[in-house]
Design brief:
alpha/beta, 577 residues, seven-stranded parallel beta sheet, 24 helices, Rossmann fold
Length: 577
């Protein structure tokens, strides 16, 4: 008896490399389902399989680290049994992520991960920080200058941030706010709390466009209050840069706005006390830490306009306190969203004239920069040329492959109204603020994720005029694409949209695993095991409340779990470890 992969050569079936060649009796003893393990150079599948089998035979009998009642209520098996069952499934059901053995091991992995984050968080809270009592005078002065009242969500977030800054522990808080919820003003009020106590504050944005826009928003208030401010971005070189760095070092600059240029080694602050990091998922944890190390006990506020589902917030940001701003400022009108097929392209292009006749502006977003032989996606350069044929030099183009200075020059022309139509890639997704822009056309909308569509749509509806968004799709829509576009048509609630995005696309797609710091789980599948996360979270909180140093019977067993999942560093955070 032989088994292996069968190929066809001409009219003959052949098996070039049989996996097994055995007599019938030996063949009958083979498992029905055979595991396939990832290999690396120099290791054969059989060799690895033998090693795994030997390892399974050597698994020790370890004490249970899960809550016994919880294990029984789920009909889960012990860790040792689960290990055997996932490596040696007897039926096809054993391959499902919902199988009790796999679910149990997924819970183990999530428990190790969440416990590590909780211990890191507890350690951070123990680390000495600085107390910045709220400066009622500066806050009142700024709020008095605002042309609007703070929303309830803004006030609630500010109360939480202010309490963190008053405490003697370091702040590490995530501020989630939907598009247009007013995070920048909350961040400015928080930074003024540090500045009012004699410290410096910085606001770090992922792009130069966004950094300059933040500066433009907050500069008039700072100047009226007599607070020295500066912009630190990569393109500022030579004497201009040296002067800016000198002002930072001697304390003339109390508040700086910039990009990752802020944490380069040659930058020194007189006394950095507060750092705000905008669009956290665009920065790595190391970059955030590098910035906080520029001062002593720096409070860190992380902001994101990408609403993150609760399960992913627990997973990716479990070491942070979280504030969510769901309310939108008064006067924000909902954006009229339509889903239209590409066959109506000519009608849409002609209809742009109506928008332009009202002195309003338009975004046209494409997925690619250049036309491609291997992709049928719309390209920004081709669309720019086509629209310029109709509307002439009122059409501009911006994309990520342009030099920063070129990109900013185009954005500046669009912001002051010298351009009426801006053809762009997703480089405009985050933070661009042009109140006169009232129309957004997103080409190949079926290829974008929900969160990204929501971000792009958030570029319009920022002024007093009614705004619209056209989701332009090509060809026939698949079922999931149809659901996505229908959700966009029905709601503008970013948090609801993010939950749907998670359901339809999965965790890695929603946050972008490589950018977000989302852990690379081996056993847990966040799409399938998401409902376990809140239980794990509560389990960890209760465990650390009852046994903060993990010295009880279960606590000691959990130390073993941390070692198994290579979370050894977490053990160092235990006061007795």
């Amino acid at each position: 008896m032989i088994s292996g992969r069968i190929d066809r050569f001409r009219d003959q079936l052949q098996m070039t490399h049989p996996d097994h060649m055995l007599v019938r009796a030996a063949f009958e003893a083979l498992p029905t389902i055979e595991p396939v393990y990832p290999l690396t150079a120099g290791i054969a599948a059989k060799t690895l399989m033998k090693a795994v089998q030997a390892g399974l035979g050597a698994i020790p009998d370890l004490p249970e680290w899960q809550n016994n009642d919880w294990v029984k209520s789920n009909n889960w098996v012990s860790w040792q049994t689960a290990m055997h069952m996932v490596h040696q499934p007897e039926t096809a059901d054993g391959l499902s992520p919902l199988h009790p053995a796999r679910a149990r091991l997924a819970y183990d992995e999530l428990l190790a991960h969440q416990l590590t984050l909780a211990l890191v968080r507890r350690q951070r809270r123990r680390a000495s920080g600085r107390s910045f009592p709220a400066d009622a005078g500066l806050h009142a002065q700024l709020i008095g200058m605002l042309p609007f009242m703070l929303t309830g969500a803004q006030s609630a977030a500010l109360t939480e941030i202010s309490a963190d800054m008053e405490s003697s522990s370091r702040m590490l808080r995530l501020l989630q706010g939907d598009v247009g919820s007013g995070k920048t003003i909350v961040a400015l009020l928080a930074m003024l709390q540090a500045v009012g106590n004699g410290a410096q504050a910085v606001l770090m944005a992922p792009t130069e466009i966004l950094a300059l826009q933040h500066a433009e928003t907050i500069a008039p208030y700072l100047e009226e209050m007599g607070i020295g401010w500066d912009v630190i971005i990569g393109r500022n070189q030579g004497q201009r840069r040296r002067d800016a760095l000198a002002r930072l070092a001697d304390g003339t600059t109390r508040l700086a706005v910039g990009t990752h240029a802020l944490f380069q080694s040659d930058i020194e602050f007189q006394d950095l006390g507060m750092a705000v990091v905008d669009e956290q998922h665009r920065f790595g944890v190391q970059q955030r830490m590098a910035l906080s190390e520029k001062g002593n006990g720096v409070d860190v506020l992380v902001m994101t306009a990408t609403p993150i589902p609760r399960t992913l917030t627990l997973t990716a940001y479990g070491d942070m306190d979280v504030s969510r701003m769901i309310e939108k400022p008064p006067g924000r009108k909902p954006v009229d969203t339509r889903v239209i097929g590409f066959e109506k392209y000519d009608d849409i292009v002609a209809g742009l004239a109506n928008v332009l006749s009202r002195d309003q502006q338009i975004y046209w977003v494409c997925p690619l920069v250049k036309e491609s032989d291997v992709s049928d996606l719309a390209a920004a350069e081709a669309r720019h040329a086509a629209l310029a044929d109709v509307y002439g030099d009122r059409v501009g183009l911006v994309h990520g492959q342009m030099k920063p200075a070129e990109k900013d020059a185009v954005m500046e022309k669009f912001q002051r109204g010298a351009l009426s139509i801006l053809v762009a890639t997703t480089v405009i997704e985050v933070g661009v603020n042009v109140p006169a822009a009232t129309a957004m056309i997103i080409e190949h909308a079926e290829r974008f994720g929900l969160a990204q569509l929501h971000q792009l749509r958030g570029r319009v509806g920022r002024g007093a005029d009614k705004s619209s968004c056209v989701l332009l799709y090509h060809g026939r829509l698949g079922e999931i694409a149809k659901q996505r576009l229908e959700i966009m048509r029905q709601t503008d609630d970013g948090f609801l949209i993010s939950e749907e995005d998670l359901r339809l696309r999965g965790a890695g797609e929603v946050l972008g695993t490589r950018q977000s710091g989302l852990p690379n789980f081996r056993l847990a599948d966040l799409e399938v095991h998401a409902e376990l996360l809140p239980v794990v979270h509560d389990d960890v909180n209760l465990l650390l409340e009852m046994d903060p140093t993990l010295v009880s019977g279960r606590g000691n067993a959990i130390r073993t779990l941390l070692y198994l999942f290579q979370r050894d560093a977490a053990i160092r955070y235990l006061s007795s470890g």
